[in-house]
Specification:
This protein is about 50% helix and about 10% strand. It has 20 helices and eight strands. It has a five-stranded parallel sheet, with helices on both faces. Strands 1-2-3 form a three-stranded mixed sheet, covered by helices on one side. The protein starts with a helix and ends with a helix. It binds adenosine-5'-diphosphate (ADP) and magnesium ion (MG). It is found in: Cytoplasm.
Length: about 450
């Protein structure tokens, strides 16, 4: 522990790097002659990385702290030996770089999504470790990093964590996070010379980066011109040893309409997955959210949520929010199991297959545009809300059998003429605006994946 503490301070290692790579290490033996220190690494996947990154730091720290001149360190994998369990330790606060809001906005980053707020469990530890390695050494080891997994399991959170980490260590780093939808829409606009961006500017914007993060790549699939452009963007960045990070709902080999040359490039680096969280991880995530939001919720209620909501983490968060909201609504009623049952009766145990209903469409569209379902249903008339609301009307009309009257009802009691007007507006825009077409295609896939 003293060696590690020395190393952490001497080399100014961040808490998360320390906890992930160094804390789990254990000295196994000191071999003489030769003063070789043998160290156990619990996760075989990252032995190579730890060796490359930390060997020298460890040798220096061992010599400084123990006075024994250490000629080399050797790393062993836990499977080879049966070690004692690693001690869990508390952290030392440091790393005081602050990143300006403007920098975050330019990169499209959410400051809340960091490694500190990401709970590591059996379902995501590989993805977490790989992301951290890339954040520490962008462009140097795993390029591209390809993260895949189902909806709401933390892919976007991890990508932002990487970007935020890099910016904190190097505020001058050029970082750009985009969804593949945005990439596609900007390309479409550039080709049509809309919104004052030319294709040259488009290329510059995407190629002039140290780190490019493309979220939900599955949505450029099947769009030839976008794949072509992304292929060139990828090559330019990769050749310049710039880091590329990609997320998707599936691994490259299972994405059917992905061009072969892109597929093989995606597999050049490291591919990691995120699975659904197990019970322990669900509990840990709920406790973390509780702490972050300053809620005070009975342990029984937390257990109740973790037992009943298994599919994804967004729903887990949603459940917590619903319970707290209901408690507030009922004059700060005490949060107990009874209240939790009432708040969650719609989420817990619905049928296995998600039916496409106006309510479901509202939820997906709201999420997509960073709004809440209540915004969509409200009387608010700002452009940021009116347009998504009209998209809801259009999607309800084309994807469900619901009549105008009932669409109006689902949208907070709107008149059927309003609904008709909304549908017409979107239909007309679709004819002249291919990037809207792209957005609608993506929303349809989100609503009905098959
Ligand atoms: P995805 O991009 O895979 O659909 P997100 O990254 O958007 O999922 O995650 C959905 C929500 O769950 C976000 O609010 C995110 O902060 C939260 N979340 C996901 N994984 C974790 C985790 N391991 N620890 C804490 N919060 C998480
Ligand atoms: Mg996401």
């Amino acid at each position: 522990n003293e060696i590690l503490k020395y190393l952490k301070e001497e080399y100014d290692i961040s808490d998360v790097s320390f906890d992930t790579w160094l804390l789990p290490l254990e000295v196994y033996a000191l071999e003489q002659p030769g003063n070789i220190v043998k160290i156990i690494v619990p996760d075989a996947n990252f032995l190579g990385y730890i060796k490359k990154k930390y060997s020298t730091m460890l040798m220096v720290s061992i010599a400084e702290v123990t006075g024994i001149k250490c000629d080399s360190v050797q790393f062993l994998v836990e499977e080879d030996i049966v070690p004692e369990p690693a001690a869990t330790n508390q952290l030392i606060q440091n790393n005081t770089n602050t990143v300006s809001l403007a920098t975050l906005q330019n990169a499209n980053l959410n400051p809340k999504y960091t490694f500190d707020t990401f709970v590591v469990g059996a379902n995501n530890n590989l993805a977490h470790a790989a992301s951290l390695a890339v954040a520490e050494s962008p462009g140097e080891i795993y390029n591209p990093l390809f993260i895949y997994g189902g909806v709401g399991l933390g892919k976007t959170h991890l990508m932002h964590s990487i970007a935020n980490f890099i910016l904190k260590n190097n505020p001058k780093a050029k970082i750009l996070y985009v969804t593949s939808e945005k990439f596609t829409n900007e390309l479409i606009d550039a080709i049509r010379n809309k919104n004052n961006i030319s294709t040259t500017e488009f290329r510059e914007k995407y190629r002039n980066n140290d780190v490019l993060l493309i979220d939900d790549i599955q949505f450029i699939i099947g769009k030839e011109s976008t794949q072509e452009e992304f292929f060139h963007t990828f090559n330019a960045l990769h050749e310049a040893k710039k880091q590329i990070i990609i997320s998707s709902d599936k691994p490259p080999k299972e994405i059917e309409t992905l061009e072969e040359r892109l597929r093989s490039r995606f597999e050049w680096g490291l591919t990691v997955d995120i699975q659904s969280p197990d019970y322990e991880t669900r509990m840990a995530i709920l406790r973390k959210k509780e702490e972050m939001e300053g809620y005070n919720i009975d342990n029984e209620v937390i257990k109740y949520i973790a037992t009943n909501i298994k599919s994804n983490i967004r729903e887990l968060e949603g459940a917590l929010t619903k319970i707290v909201a209901l408690s507030k609504l009922e004059k700060n009623r005490e949060i107990d199991i009874e209240l939790a049952e009432k708040a969650l009766k719609d989420i817990i145990a619905p049928g296995d297959k998600q039916e496409v209903t106006p309510e479901f469409i509202i939820q997906i569209v709201a999420d997509h545009f960073n709004l809440t379902p209540l915004d969509i249903m409200s009387a608010k008339r700002s452009k940021e809300i009116v347009y998504p609301r009209q998209i809801v009307m259009y999607l309800c009309r084309t994807m469900t059998e619901t009549g105008l009257q009932n669409i109006g009802k689902a949208l907070g009691g709107r008149d059927h003429t309003t609904i008709l007007h909304g549908i017409k507006t979107i239909s007309a825009d679709l004819e002249k605006n291919p990037s809207l077409q792209n957005t609608i295609d993506i929303l349809k896939k989100k609503i009905s994946p098959q």
